Amino acid sequence: MTAKVVTIASGKGGVGKTTAVANIGVALASRGQKVTCIDADIGLRNLDVVLGLENRIVYDLVDLIEGRCRLRQAMIRDKRLPELYLIPAAQTRDKTAVSPSDMVRLCDELRQEVDWIIIDSPAGIERGFKNAIAAADRVIVMTIPEVSAVRDADRVIGLLDAEEKGPAALVINRLDPAMVKRGDMLSVEDVLDLLAVELIGIVPEDENVIVASNRGQPLALDAKSKAGQAFQNIARRLMGEQLPFMDLESQNLLQRLLGRK
Amino acid sequence: MAFLFRRKKSANSAKERLQLVLIHDRTDLTPAELDSLKDDLIETISRHIEIDPTAVTINVAQDGRSQRLVADIPLRSVGHRRGREPGRAAG
User: Fold this and answer.
1) Which CATH topology does A4-259 take?
2) Which residue in chain A has the smallest CA separation from B19?
């Protein structure tokens, strides 16, 4: 096996990176792929709780890099999907514990074991971000249709080009079709005009994302959830499928017919 | 008639504001620096050829993710120059 390393970055915090890593990991694993998710957000560990694996942590990323455990010992196996693993972040305050070359070395070892390595980047564009992209074959930039998130996504896309990690693939998260329709939210087309990058996913606003994280059960396994399906679609596109983007307008067809004079 | 006074859709404001902000973020060029560049450009070009300084425009245009500096510099016509400075007109 030679894994593909995919890093999810955003610049701005709170746009849904961790949710995306959890759900894309789950979606790939549910399609028979062997996946390891790495939480590269040292000091602000969160991927473990979103995946519902927080009680099973023994060793973390820093233990692994500093040689206190072997690779297999740091890989926590998911309860639901036997082909899904998590390497959790450390909760140490020392962010210099990991370097970009550590990440490259770790991923080179891991590449032999799995099909996909999905890395959760911290917010910002400093050391943690550099670590997270160091080994990446592909970087997904997450944004939401909001001015500050789009601006930060543009910075990150520019940095990725400069570091020869581009071209980035864009996910637009938390899109609210009703707000777009009444002209109070940037549309997918607006964001693509501004950022001029390839689109790999559109995830609609979905209350179930919070319910899923409350329970520690990623919603990519829920066939009724629109956001879950959007993450499944991103996983399929990563695997090379050509898929049309979900028609989010059609959700509001009834409202549209009722609302029309 | 109230609709005539309705404010512009907020998504349009967001897009227009972002377009300007992103140009500055990507190029590190502020509007003041662009103005100073324009003055320098006018001065340099005027040493070689007669132009109309008031008609010069300079802008940053977008082409995908790359930016392009676009200057429009109208030249004074030969006839115009002859009329003003007959001695310097070239044959």
Assistant:
1) Rossmann fold (3.40.50)
2) A194
